[in-house]
Design goal:
Blueprint (H helix, E strand, L loop, with lengths): L2 E10 L2 E11 L4 E5 L6 H9 L6 E6 L2 E2 L5 H7 L1 E4 L11 H7 L13 H7 L1 H5 L10 H13 L5 E5 L7 H16 L3 E5 L3 H7 L2 E6 L2 E7 H6 L1 H8 L2
Parallel strand pairs: 3-8, 3-9, 6-7, 7-8
Antiparallel strand pairs: 1-2, 1-4, 4-5, 9-10
Helix pairs in contact: 3-6
């Protein structure tokens, strides 16, 4: 497995958020995390990315234990993080935002370049010299994904990429993530819209109150009325 999370327990202060979460992502795979708001899905991504540190458990990436590592070190190992808030640099131009994503002294075959990102996102090529803060919500999402790809990740952690986007932009993001995955990049996705998540992924984990309550293929989830009724319906 590319990524293995085993019995992770993560806290915010005294609040026990993740209570023994285990999951795995294989090379080139797209896996989704489903569940109602506030059950710990984003915390799983932040724990993997080093933004919060589990008190117990293990996280291995390509066989190396990354639990407790600083985020920049995890990034240099080949994990990219696309946060829900996007967090672009609003005063930097599109090109400057993309340049920020380059990892120093990190060499790979067929690296992502600005031209390659612009081939994926022609709209960003048109906005090359504009400041990030002047972009639309959809363009900012493109920029966030493009900046992450500039680091040549083997795995990207994607948190609610379609939140607040119009339906046409949702379709665009789905197409982009499919294309990125076809390039060999594995994806661990948190997505509130189950139809979007299941279109992108073949396997899914359902999370409730900080625990994984279902683990299986998307077809198995669709056939499991009890899990959908108990953990996914609003």
């Amino acid at each position: 497995m590319l990524l293995e999370v085993t019995e992770n327990h993560t806290y915010y202060g005294k609040s026990h958020i993740l209570q023994g979460v285990s999951l795995a992502v294989d090379q080139g795979e797209t896996v989704t995390l489903l569940g109602r708001n506030g059950v710990g899905k984003s915390t799983i991504l932040k724990s993997i990315g080093g933004l919060v540190h589990p008190r117990r458990g293990s996280i291995t990436f390509k066989g190396q234990n990354i639990l407790g590592m600083r985020p920049y070190k995890i990034c240099r190992l080949g994990i990219g993080y696309i946060p829900e808030e996007r967090r672009i640099f609003p005063k930097l131009t599109v090109r400057q935002n993309l340049l920020v994503g380059i990892k120093p002294r990190y060499k790979v075959d067929n690296p992502w370049t600005i031209d390659r990102v612009y081939d994926f996102f022609p709209k960003l090529r048109e906005r090359d010299g504009q400041r990030g803060g002047n972009l639309s919500g959809g363009e900012q999402q493109m920029l966030t994904i493009g900046r992450t790809l500039m680091g040549n990740p083997e795995l990207i952690l994607v948190d609610e990429p379609t939140e607040g986007l119009a339906p046409l932009l949702v379709d665009m993001v789905v197409h982009i993530l499919k294309s990125v995955n076809q390039e060999g990049v594995a994806v661990l996705l948190v997505e509130h819209a189950m139809d979007v998540a299941l279109e992108l992924a073949k396997r899914t984990y359902v999370v409730s109150k900080g625990r994984v309550v279902f683990n299986g293929t998307c077809d198995e989830l669709l056939a499991n009325e009890e899990v959908k009724r108990k953990y996914l319906e609003v």
